[in-house]
Structure formats: C-alpha cells, structure tokens
C-alpha cells in the first residue's frame, strides 16, 4: 500500500497590542470583508482554512489573540506550537510599534528560533495619522531578523500576500525536512 501524504497543518498566531487590527487582518484574509465596528477579542478566537499552495494542500489554523494586558498570561500557551508568529502594530501608533520588540522576545522565549516571525505594520490607509515610516519598520525587522510587510485590512492592501509568503517559506522547509527523513505520514 502506498503511503498517504499528510495534510500539512500550520498554526499562525496573531499577536500585538489592542486595536492594531489583528482580527481585521484575519477577517479580510478569510472572508475578504472589513467591519468598521470595533469589537475587542476576548481571550482568543480560532479559525481554520484549507488552501492550495505550491504543490500541496495546507490547513491553516489562525489564532487571533486578545491584545489587552489582562490576557497576556495566556499568550505563551498559544505561541507554544505555532509555525508562524504574526506580530501586528498600527502605523498610526508609535507605542504599538515599540511594543513589537516585547512580542518578538516573548515568541523567541517560547519557541526559540524554530518559528517564522512576521512583523506587520497595519492601517496604512491612515496616511495623515502615520507615526511609523515604512523605513523604520523595515530597519527594525532587519535588525531583529524577522520578515516585514505593511498592510491595510480596511483597504485590503497586502492581505492576500501576507500569509502565502509565510507559507511558501514553511512549505520549502517542510519539503527539505521530509526529503531528509524517511518517515511515512498517514492521515
């Protein structure tokens, strides 16, 4: 009997301060919609999506975390088995940008270097309110050795490329790993 290839599953955990747009990015990616009504995430929300990427079908598990301080103690358990940490800040909030360093440190404390980290500058549609330039975002990301992209969940800018880019890197790592190992995967 021929081995059955496993459906690759990737957990993407979305982290960042309150009101930076984590839920809006996920909603735009999943449903191509934007809701102008703000509603804080309580604890965590979880969504799943199956998509075809390169030569395989992958299942994405998108974990939308609460940004409020009172839920911070729960974050390490959500990070623990993630493949990708998406750390979001609001380009119109310098403090949320400065706090990305804390989020990155928390991810690395929990996962070491065994995780892809993407810093996302969201709300680029707020041109007149921008406090963080794209150059600052790029420089900080280079310095911290993480991926970087700017988005606007409201305008739908750079949402679709955000997640497939992460997954392309994961798929390449997955192929390398499975070419080197002789494991048989059953589903």
TrEMBL record:
Belongs to the small GTPase superfamily. Rab family. GO terms for biological process: protein transport. It is a lipid-anchor. SMART domains: RAB, RAN, RAS, RHO. GO terms for cellular component: Golgi membrane. The lineage of its organism: Eukaryota, Viridiplantae, Streptophyta, Embryophyta, Tracheophyta. PANTHER family: RAS-RELATED PROTEIN RAB. Interacts with the C-terminus of GC5, but not with GC3. It comes from Phtheirospermum japonicum. Its main location: Golgi. It is found in: Golgi apparatus membrane. InterPro entries: P-loop_NTPase (IPR027417), Rab (IPR050227), Small_GTP-bd (IPR005225), Small_GTPase (IPR001806). Keywords: GTP-binding, Lipoprotein, Nucleotide-binding, Prenylation, Protein transport, Transport. One of its GO terms (molecular function) is GTPase activity. This is RAS-related protein rabh1b. SUPFAM superfamilies: P-loop containing nucleoside triphosphate hydrolases.
């Amino acid at each position: 009997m021929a081995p059955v290839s496993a459906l690759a599953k990737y957990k993407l955990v979305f982290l960042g301060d309150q009101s930076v747009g984590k839920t809006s990015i996920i909603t735009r990616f999943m449903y191509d919609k934007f809701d102008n009504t703000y509603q804080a995430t309580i604890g965590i929300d979880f969504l799943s999506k199956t998509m075809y990427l390169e030569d395989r079908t992958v299942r994405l598990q998108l974990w939308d975390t609460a940004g409020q301080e009172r839920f911070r103690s729960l974050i390490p358990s959500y990070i623990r088995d993630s493949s990708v940490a998406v750390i979001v800040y609001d380009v119109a909030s310098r403090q949320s940008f400065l706090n990305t360093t804390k989020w990155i440190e928390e991810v690395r404390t929990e996962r070491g270097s065994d995780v892809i980290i993407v810093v996302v500058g969201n709300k680029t549609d707020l041109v007149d309110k921008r406090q963080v330039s794209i150059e600052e975002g790029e420089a900080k990301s280079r310095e911290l050795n993480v991926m970087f992209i700017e988005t606007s969940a409201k305008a739908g800018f750079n949402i679709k490329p955000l997640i497939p880019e992460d997954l392309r890197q994961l798929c390449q790592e997955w192929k390398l790993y499975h070419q080197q190992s002789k494991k048989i995967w059953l589903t």
